[in-house]
Amino acid sequence: MEQLNTKILIIGAGPSGMVAAGYLHKCGVDCLVVEKSTFPRFSIGESLLPSSMENFKEAELLEAIKSAGFQKKYGARFLKNGKIGEFDFSQKYGEGWDWTWQVPRADFDLVLANEIQRKGIEILFNTEVTKVIFNGKKSTIDIIINSQEKKEIKADFIIDASGNGRVLANQLKLNAAPKITGNSSIFTHIKEKNRPKGKEGELITFEVLNNKTWFWYFPFSNGNSSLGFVSTNNWFKGFSNDNSIAFSEMMNCLKYYQKRFEDEVPLFTPVKLTNISRNVNKIYGKGFALTGNSGEFLDPVFSSGVAIATESGLKAAKLARLDVEGLEVDWEKEYAQYMQEGISVFSSYVKEWYTGNLQKLFFHDMPRTEIKEQICAVLAGYVWNKSNPFVKSHKRIIKNIARLIDQEEINI
Ligand SMILES: Cc1cc2nc3c(=O)[nH]c(=O)nc-3n(C[C@H](O)[C@H](O)[C@H](O)COP(=O)(O)OP(=O)(O)OC[C@H]3O[C@@H](n4cnc5c(N)ncnc54)[C@H](O)[C@@H]3O)c2cc1C
Predict the structure, then answer these.
(1) Residue pair 112/59 in contact by the 8 Å Cβ criterion
(2) Distance of CA 115 from the midpoint of ligand 1 (Å)
(3) Which stretches of 274-368 are DSSP H helices?
């Protein structure tokens, strides 16, 4: 059996794996990427956060993305029962990027993969990692190419960026109960025939049906748009088992967007995913790290997936580089604890969104400027900036302000 050798093997060519590869290439570290599918391939996770721009930049991928002409995203709008909560990333607390993109992921991930290959890093497409054998310094990775040819790769370190493939989480039985449970999603794309000009046809919007249920509209620069719903598994039971019928039934529940898309035909049968959150009890071990969705995925409501995927991909690549050079790395402190700091902020926001507390702040009639800016910084992905009270006190602050709103003691 032919054997391949590399210092760092990256499993998966999604945003997490590509940011890791870009950084390692910049530092001259030998790496190889193995990707199960062929690109372009569909993926969900289309609205990015400004904080991920820094990660793309550090991985030297930003210029390639810029030249692809994706739709720029300057903020987000939330609608509920005639009320509007709008966030503009240029009006946020602290430093950071004011914009990012909303992207069809098939095209976006292809741009990243093409750029990585142009730099000279090999990506083995149509190649699935089936097993990892950890044996001291060098691990052996079993792969299957084109569903038939078996090969082995020897690597000093493995960055598992396999997303829902969950290669090491499954093999090493690392899966754990997710922090958010019981949510499903259904989504499709449309070719918009009558997209309004200007902001109305460019701005990402979330129409909120109730505390647990919301709809997304993401317009792309190629004229297509992404539409989707997220709610409890229970809510989904109230609709047809046929995804196409269920999707139009759900569209009829909308107030703001119901008429706008009534003549549009989905470009593909709506895809339904149940129990969308994921978690593990450990994101590193001797000779490996889990990054992006191969570790944890919370919920789509604040579009944090790719931001966390790129942050963890970059961080793991930095530490893996030191590890393969023989330096001591404190993976617990520098990786696991660091990642949890940011993820736990998003986790509080997601939880308080579904309790309805955060929605009270979003849709308050007279929001106080500094509070709005501090929340906006979190929505832009700046969840490690502890000088922001909405980061530092994330476990209490939303609840406390919602209580004051209820008591009408504060005009936030
Ligand atoms: C309904 C829904 C909506 C979402 N919306 C958003 C959003 O608006 N914004 C956002 O930021 N995030 C969103 N997300 C989350 C987002 O999809 C993920 O967080 C993001 O794609 C994770 O990137 P990744 O690189 O970790 O994994 P992926 O992008 O999934 O890449 C993993 C890659 O690994 C490959 N792979 C899998 N198994 C193997 C194997 N055995 N061998 C080799 N390769 C393998 C896969 O083919 C894939 O290409 C959403 C998620 C859901 C469920």
Answers:
(1) no
(2) 19
(3) 305-324, 331, 338-355, 357-362
Instruction: Please work out whether the CB of residue 163 comes within 6 Å of at least one atom of ligand 1.
Output: yes
pLDDT tens string 36-93:
999 999 999 999 999 999 999 999 999 999 999 999 999 999 999 999 999 999 999 9
Ligand 1 mean position to 16 CA, how many Å?
8
The DSSP bridge pattern shows strands 149-160 and 205-210 to be: unpaired
DSSP annotation of 280 reads: B
- 58 Cβ neighbours under 8 A, 6+ residues apart: 19, 23, 314
For ligand 1, say whether the CB of 36 is within 6 Å of any of its atoms: yes
| pLDDT at residue number 2 | 65
H/E element holding 3?
strand 3-11
Q: Long-range contacts for 126-131 (Cβ within 8 Å, ≥24 apart)?
A: 126/35, 126/36, 126/37, 126/38, 127/34, 127/35, 127/36, 128/34, 128/36, 129/11, 129/34, 129/36, 129/162, 129/165, 129/167, 131/171
Cα–Cα dist 384/408, whole Å: 31
DSSP-derived secondary structure for 47-99: B--THHHHHHHHTT-HHHHHTTTPEEE-EEEEEETTEEEEEETTS-SSSS-S-
For residue 338, report the distance from its CA to the centre of ligand 1, in Å: 21
Average pLDDT, the chain: 96
Tokens coding 26 = 């910049």
Tally the C-alpha atoms within 13 A of residue 319's C-alpha that lie toward its C-beta.
27
Dihedrals phi, psi of 240, to nearest 5 degrees: -55, 155
Residue 27, classified by CB atoms within 10 Å of its CB into exposed (0-12), middle (13-18) or buried (19+), is exposed
Give me the domains of the chain, ranges plus CATH numbers. 2-73+98-177+277-342 (3.50.50.60), 183-273 (3.30.9.100), 355-411 (no CATH)
Instruction: Give the CA distances from residue 70 to residues 42, 54, 132, 404, in Å, rounded to whole numbers and listed in that order.
Output: 16, 17, 37, 41
